[in-house]
Task: structure prediction
Amino acid sequence: MSNPVQLTPLASIASDTTTGAVRLTVSDLARSREFYERVIGLRSFDLPQGGVSLGATRDDPVVELFGDSAAPPLDRRAPGLYHLAILVPSRLDLAFALLRVAAARWPLGGASDHLVSEALYLSDPDGVGIEIYRDRPRDQWIRTDGQLRMATEALDLEGLIGEIDGAGESQPEAPAGTTVGHVHLQVASLRETEDFYHGVLGFDVMVRSYPGAIFLSAGGYHHHIGANVWHSAGGGPAAPGAIGLRNFEIVLPSAAERDRVLGRVRAAGIEIDDGEPRPLIRDPSGNGVVLRTS
Result:
C-alpha cells in the first residue's frame, strides 16, 4: 500500500466520534462464540451472512466473528490487532468481569493500572488479545507538558475484588453500556500511522512519549486508537484471510461528518472500498477501517 499524502488537519475529527464493532476471523466459530459468552459475558446473535455478533445488547455489538477452519494462523509479528478493548461502565463491573474470567478458569495475561484506567488482559482461543477496562473520571487524569500521562503499573486486584463485597446480586453477563472503548493496533510505522489517523482522519495525538507506541483520540479521550511497533516494525501484512482482524469501526456522529472525513480520505489519495455496506479504507499497515454513522 502506498503511503497516504499527509494533511494538516483543518479540524479535529468530531469530538463525539467513538470506536465500534471489531470484526475477527476465527478458526472455530462455535469455540470462540462460547468463549465470548462464558468468559467475557457477552450475548450472541446470529448474523445473516453466517457469522456471530456479540455484545451486551443486540444493538450494541462489541465483536463480530466469522469462522474459517482453513485460515492461516494469527501472526503476532505482522501488523493487525494488538488487542480489542472492551470498556465497562464502572469499577464494580470490572470486578465482576474479573470474577467471570476466574470462574471460567481462563488465564489472565496481565492486570494493569494505566493511571487513566484500570485493565485486565487475556487472549481468546485463537490468541487474539483482549483488554477489559474501566475508566477513571477525567478530572483524575494527569497531564504533563501538554500531554496526557499514562503508565503501566500493577493493578490492585485485591482492592478490585473488594468492590464486590456488599454488591448484592451477581453479574453473570456484561452490563448494558459495555462498548468497544478503543482499538490497539500493531503497525509497521508509527510515523505513517500518525500521518493517517491524525493527518488524514483528524484524531488528536494524546501521547507520543510511550516507548514504541502512539495514542490518538477524539474529544480529549485518552485514546480511541492505540498503535505500537513492539513486534511489527517494518512488517508486511498478514497472510490474506488470516486469523485476526478483518476490520474495525470508527463511528461518526452524522452523515455530514462522515462525508467530511471521506473527503479528506479522497484528497489524500486513499482508496475507498464502496463495495462494502459502509465505506472501508485501510491504514498504511493494511488494517481495515469501516466508517459508519451512529
